[in-house]
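Please, does this match?
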Amino acid sequence: MAVEISKEIKLTGEALQQFTAAKIFRESNEHKQSLCFSADGQRLLVCDHHNLVVYDCTAMTQRCQVLMHQFNPEVVCFTSRTDRLLHSCTKSDLAIRYLDLTTRQHVRHFKGHTDRVHCLSFRPGHDQQFISAGRDHKLLIWDLRTKQYTQRLHHLENPLLAYDPTGLVFATSDKTNRIEIHDVRMLSEKPCHKFNYKLKSTAKWTQMQFAPNGDSILISTDHSWCFSVDAFSGDFNQSYSGYSNEQELPLPACYTSDSQLVLSGADAGRIYAWNANSGKLMAVLMSNSLHPVRCLQFHPNMAMFVSSDVMTVFWLPKANGQYEFVEKSREPTPSTPPTTPQTPPLPAIDLTNDQEQDEEKDVQFVGRRMNYPLSEQLMRRNRLKRRLALGQEADSPEDGEVSDGGTATTVTSEA
């Protein structure tokens, strides 16, 4: 098979200084809670407590909006499909919900947490598995095909989580003292690695992310710094500081797609960028916002990133900028149509009266439930009256047949 060669912008500090806000959206006046790209990079998912919005990343347009007033989600993520997603719920049962954007219904509810879920991560390269972490100190491993979690890690306090790019291992934390690496194929056993830390700072760890090359792990804090560690040895790599976080918020940080730079949100709509290896500050980008950047993520395979506070901002290189280019090889896109259904353009979706789509699958019916039309019910009733008038004994209703009261009759047997 022939290999396609493409030229892409080399993501250096000088290149990042030439990024600008190419498109700005403001769906509401609320601070955004979560942001996620789909695995193929075609869609972007952004949510606040009352709205969930899906964007087309290529056209930088809004695909659909979902009204989430009754759920107050704090974290969202795509599944392996671009038309199905997971979101948390801070109201009612605290269940994680599996939403189908095409049918506009929840496919399944995942109940297991007793406090708010603050981390959701779908396993890369897998169609069914994801992990959640909550403020109830539970880390649960799920399969989309069942409502019950398949594995649980008990011994962690305020855990964070992140899959590595291959989806073969995931990392989790225990407060600010320890990072554990788990193999997804040996979840019933002890972790593969444990890295213990003694930090002088009182900062809380707020976010964890593997570098796209899988070599390091980035830890965000609620102070004015973040840091990275080696994913194999656990050794401290580098710290990244110098930005403002006066309210001690869980400001986000992320790697660029080539793992060479680290970006972090800051107060007043600023975004800082450092060299991932040296920790040298390379660029500071300014937006028109006065709010702290609450969400930040770099596109998985394009020279683009998105930040959110009250507004959602798409950042792209300036068209007239001076850049270095690198050649990258990749397999050509198959000409056959994709097996995953594409999300059609949808209007605003209101889930006020939504119920779980497969709720009836768990209900076991005994006998057959027959819903006859009214005309047929009258015919059966008249036939029964004629038999009684002729002095004949009425036949018993068949299994599941509608009786005179119009309700289904259930037949049970005893041993």
About this structure: The first strand starts at residue 4 and ends at 9. The chain has two domains: 4-360, 364-415. Confidence is low (pLDDT under 50) at residues 333-343, 358-374, 392-415. The two ends are 65 Å apart (CA to CA).
